[in-house]
Amino acid sequence: MILIVDDNKTIRLSLSVLLKHAGYESEAVASPDEALVAARTRPDLQLAVIDMNFSDTTSGEEGLELLQRLKVLRPEVPVILITGWGSIPLAVEGMRLGAFDFITKPWQNRMFLSRVETALQLAGTTTSAPETEGFNRVDIVGNDPALDSMLRTAARVAASDAPVLILGENGTGKELVARAIHRNSRRASGPFVMVNLGGISRSLFESEMFGHVKGAFTGAVADRIGRFEMADKGTIFLDEIGDLDPTSQVKLLRVLQQHTFERLGDSKTRTSDFRIIAATNADLGAKVAEGTFREDLLYRINLITLHLPPLRKRPADIEPLAKHFIADYAAQCNRTAPTLSPDAVAFLQSQPFPGNVRQLRNLVERTLLISTSSRLTTEDFRTAIALGSEQPEGTPATSDTASTMVVMSGEAMMAGSIRQAFAMSGSTPPMVFATITVHSIVSATVRATISLPG
Fold it and tell me: 100: domain range?
């Protein structure tokens, strides 16, 4: 049963009809006192939807008090707050006090029902986390307890439309987790749209995210749909959300709240049905305290928070990860995958890997490039590290070893593998191009392909 608490008779009636047509049983009451009676007498109560203001008050204190009393009486029952756009700070305070979610007036019926369904789905799951056998991990490798716990939570929320915030250091695999959630959701057949918010300037934010019409600005020679429109019926993954500037945060909050937007240069309001997954390596709580990240936006994106452990905290996963990367790379190169010696495994497990899984993969690929052995040893990896950019204890590569590695990467270019050359050298493309030009090791064909001078 869903409890509706609002002193406005029209709102009570409209929500009751909406929920009835969606197949939900509801009870509508007009005052906090009636709501508390229902909480005490209705054991089938599953969700409460409450207004922030009653009688003639507009402070929201009555709604916050009712929320706290409901959480004391029925702590297991999620509460959704209804508030006006100008009262969002009150809703944020309600989230601090234990509210599940908040909805602003006027709401869209589809969005309201989606929030209700999400609240019921998550509240209806058992406290013991489900197993993940049926959860498609995609390319997530490892059995570390912290990783498994995170994946169990991901499996539990994948079927819902709950916003998910993925926290973790660079290179831990936040995008893989986002893709896994999408792959295991009911939106799996829809698009997965990835956006690196750290790479979008403030001036381009609206055009990139909401789209624009022809003539909206200089250079807008044709209509262009934005990322939110692309994500309709699918998932939008907002990476590096902690890097978003305050002005763009306001614009993002509005579209996340109502799922409506206007293309730049157009007054037509458009709607998109998307699920949001966000990720960052930043401490958003600290950013809120500093005033550089909106607290209301944080509560909108972190209904469920997943913490990805760094690779140094899951050393037992390094061996299966390395074997996975070896097999994957060998398949791409059409060669037999070498094995790992025990000393090589121990050596890899002793490394700090500040770049996490991404750095491990880079090291494995570079080692495979320079070694033709059927069994990789510690010395193979030491050689790859010495010739790469990541030295043990953070020691930078010398100019001689860097030059040698770039020359070897140039030889990889001669074999037609430019991507391998960059991975192998640990250097930037300009450094690779400049050094291999000096050593004159690139054929005319490859030189033309990569636009090298002379």
Answer: 2-124
Cα–Cα distance between 291 and 308 in angstroms, integer? Answer: 25
CATH number at residue 183: 3.40.50.300
Residues 266 and 320 in one domain: no
Same domain, 269 and 223: yes
Contact criterion met (CB below 8 Å) for 165 and 242: no
Beta bridge partners of 4: 28, 49
Q: How many domains, in total, are found in the chain?
A: 3
- Distance (Å, whole) CA 12 – CA 16: 6
| Residue 79 in domain | yes
Long-range contacts: 103-112, Cβ < 8 Å, 24+? 104/257, 104/258, 107/82, 108/258, 108/259, 108/260, 108/271, 109/18, 110/273, 111/258, 111/259, 112/15, 112/18
pLDDT band with cut points at 50, 70 and 90 for residue 337: very high
Minimum mean pLDDT range among 74-78, 353-357, 439-443: 439-443
Domain membership of residue 6 (yes or no) is: yes
Cα Rg of the chain (Å, integer): 27
pTM over cut 0.85? no
pLDDT digit string, tens, across residues 189-243: 999 999 999 989 888 999 999 999 998 888 888 999 999 999 999 999 999 999 9
Same domain, 107 and 167: no
* Element containing residue 305 per DSSP (H, E): strand 304-307
